[in-house]
Design brief:
This protein is of the alpha/beta class and 261 residues long. It is built from seven helices and eight strands, in the order E-H-E-H-H-E-H-E-H-H-E-E-H-E-E.
């Protein structure tokens, strides 16, 4: 299996860096091929701007989606973006590893998504009519591939529990797992989250490493999150609202978009 790890931490000699080493060693020991996109080492440019679309004239209004679609179709995206897209196409599974900063990913990783997920590549694909609304949410360029988040946080597990003040961790990460991974077609595995990482001692690090390796050995066999496919009949098109009667009694929020087992 080909595995791409998109790594976003500014300090390579960190807990995240150590966990990256653990992951690469374990995956390669299993016989998988691994590539790592270390975004800070690459000095990844996170902001979408005019330099991404040199064919847009200085006096012209920059419309990012249309410029992105035009340059993707013409093969004129910048070389750094095309290189990351090639890695995505090569990979069978993509792991996004990052520390949880202000309830989301570091800006450099969001910028990777913004630039690599070009229109025509990760969104804006497929026909739109009264029966389907493009190839997204379970369909799209990444269909047939798997993805998983590896996340570290200084918070306690209780802080991210069903009654925790930060909100359930699956809700905190929903905009990533559902909105950035499932949207372009990935089958999304449950996230691996390491808690209270600022205070890990050697024995606790060994335990977290073992837990991570256990999850990595299930990449090909673990059941993905049962997100509902957009074009699978559960949503009213084009309003994209879940049809009445599919939810559990009293159910609201993000869990509506996960099918009952």
């Amino acid at each position: 299996m080909n595995v791409l790890i998109v790594f976003a931490h500014p300090e390579r000699h960190s807990l995240n860096g150590a966990l990256l080493d653990v992951a690469v060693r374990d995956l390669e020991a299993q016989g998988h091929k691994v590539q790592v996109s270390d975004l800070y080492r690459l000095q990844w440019k996170p902001a979408v701007d005019r330099s991404d679309f040199p064919d847009v004239g200085q006096g012209d209004r920059l419309k990012v989606a249309s410029a992105s679609a035009r340059d993707f179709t013409a093969g004129n995206l910048t070389e750094d973006v095309k290189a990351e897209q090639e890695k995505l196409l090569w990979a069978d599974t993509v792991i996004f590893q990052f520390p949880l900063w202000w309830f989301s990913m570091p800006a450099i990783l969001k910028g990777w998504i913004d630039r690599v997920y070009a229109c025509g590549f990760a969104y804006g694909v497929g026909e739109h009519n009264d029966k389907r609304w493009g190839d997204r949410y379970g369909e799209g360029k990444m269909a047939g591939k798997r993805a998983m988040l590896v996340v570290t946080t200084g918070g306690w597990p209780e802080h991210y529990s069903a009654r925790g003040i930060n909100g359930p961790i699956d809700d905190v990460l929903f905009h990533i797992t559902h909105g950035m991974l499932f949207y372009p077609g990935f089958a999304v595995l449950p996230s691996f989250v390491a808690y209270r990482v600022d205070r890990l001692n050697e024995a606790q690090f060994a335990d977290v490493s073992a837990q991570l390796c256990s999850r990595l050995r299930e990449l090909e066999t673990a059941s993905p999150i049962a997100y509902r496919n957009q074009n699978g009949g559960d949503y009213q098109i084009p309003s994209m609202e879940l049809l009445e009667g599919l939810e559990k009694s009293g159910e609201t929020g993000f869990s509506l978009h996960v099918a009952a087992p």
